[in-house]
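User: Second chain of the day. Same drill as before.
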Amino acid sequence: MSRSIAARPPQLVNIRFGREDALRDCAAELRQNPNLQELLPLVTCERHELFAIVRENSIGPDLQVSFTGPDAALRLFQIAAGVLSAIPGERSIAQQLTTQLRQACRSGEAGTLLSALVRRACSAGEKLRERVERETPVLELPELVAQFISDRLRDGADRPITLLGSGELGRGIATSLASRGPAPTRWATRSLRPESPATCSIEHALAALERDAILITALGGDEPIPLPNERHDLFTIDLGSPRNLEHADVTMTDIVEVSRAQLEAQRIGVERAAHRLPARAEAALAETLCPRMTGINRSIAQFREAIVERELIRMEPILKKLSGEDAEKLRKSIQHTAARTAHPMHEYANALGRQGRADEAQCMIDHLLGTRIGWGEARRVGDGATEGQSDEGVEYVGERY
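Assistant: Same format as last time:
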């Protein structure tokens, strides 16, 4: 087999940081790098990292790359699915990822490649949550905050509540509070815009704080919120990233800690459903960097489906004799075996695609599909069939695998 002559495709890299200022310095350095093609800085309450598309594996000897290639793609998929979040499976992280991608696209730093990867990652994350929700509800931070106020605070439902922040988190908290009864008495934001659901400015909200009020902060930005020193009667919940208040009675970490028992079942469900992410991330990266891989991976999927179909036909007499539960277990076992058979093909083909060797991947798949399964189709034949009939009454067209 001759090696394809093709330009080396770009690579995906991921770099993690301990502080946001370190991320900013690295992003500024990368923007001067001639090998940089696309850039996506990602800042959330739990992480500071960036994803970049570079034209070569190396983007400079001074930069410590955390993940490259499929590992970097898996990291992106895990983030979008909430696998790495303190609240496992949370949807808000995918919303933050999409928002920051949109900002990077507007500035010209991110382009079609990172946009496609993020879109695929968010789609895979939503499918993961749907699987988890079949067994247990996926709780979000706004729901946990509203539950904390109603369950943990004495007379929490009767105390006035001031909410600072009209972003995604702020809107979620307001909705969750309203669904439980204690809707925010006052809703404020840094800058009032016509589309903002907030009703006043932060300065006005802080000046009008009632006695024994509950103050919830969910603001972005680096500037802390100054509170009057004499207001010791307030109960403060700081959910900002970074922290909005110098001192707060409760932070997001505290909310997660008191909800640990509730989140445990959610975490188990997310970890169980996350086993599909590596294959999805690997295929998404290969298909994004080398569009020809989309058709090749589709052919492998058809190969897997053909194996399942043939095995189900072959095992049909046995399936009819089993109980419904046992028959379903056997069907799942057949599907699992077919997936294990096709997985090495996926891995090798996608590795070739990431190296710009899609021609070799296509030749390999054509050869395997043509010899191992023959692209024949198994079909039921009538009583008068005489050609190619098996013991179970199944006719195979093409070579049997």
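Residues 141-258 form a domain with the Rossmann fold fold (CATH 3.40.50.720).

User: Great, on to the next one.
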